[in-house]
Amino acid sequence: MANEPLDSQSIGFHLTKAKHPHQITLALFSYVLKKPKTWLLAHPETHLTTQQSEQFAGLAERLEQGEPLPYLIGKQELYGIDFKVDPSVLIPRPETELLVEEALAWLRAHPAARSGIDVGTGSGCIAIALMVNCPDLRMVATDISSPALQLASQNALAYHLEERISFVCCDLLPDGAEPVDLICANLPYIPTAKLEEVNSLPWEPSLALDGGTGGLDLIQKLLIRAKPLIKTPGLILLETEASLGKQTLELAGASFPQAKISLIKDLNDRDRLIRIELLDE
Length: 281
Description:
By secondary structure, the chain is an alpha/beta fold. The protein is built from 9 helices and 9 strands. Helices cover 34% and strands 19% of the residues.
């Protein structure tokens, strides 16, 4: 493809097996040429140099072998925001936008509630998406993985949020934390026996996927530990595995019997999000 224009024939040339070959190939071209996708679409006459062509071919080969596109180009979008990603963190999924939407709706309805904890932050995508859209929100972002926190801090710096977010390396919740208005978490929830069904393995960290034998080990632990850390009024949002929705709902009810609890489905009509709202008496 050296010295050939980026025409409709060249886009998708290497990726005929991909689900969306044109979109994926355009993303690779954008990465190789260091140009926005919109620029490439407006300049189909652009030529690849020999070095760029070799780089593109190498990336396409790695993609064909199963390596996720976000790891190849080093970024993934969530809620209209680009986040830097690498194999130290889970790739943000579109389903997680449901959690962000629910949190933002609640924050808009409670203008005095402006503190939160994002548990198991990974790339920091949830906390950062919330803060970008809620300019006076302050967050604590926790993770047990130091490399994940380093990446999340880079993402926070990219959006100039470093003064409103604190990163803590810990197991779920930090010791001595002050009560907050919002707790949100997209913790590992894949039952250990189901891990092999995840297409992105072995690329993504198992630490960010493995929810234990039943898939709910960490969620159950968080529900117990969150009790003294959530204010009233307050909101807890937990993403869960589609087949575990009802079980997660039962755990939430046992931990917060006085709260208003609901199970919310995603756009694919699958159980996805547990919403626990603590109301003023």
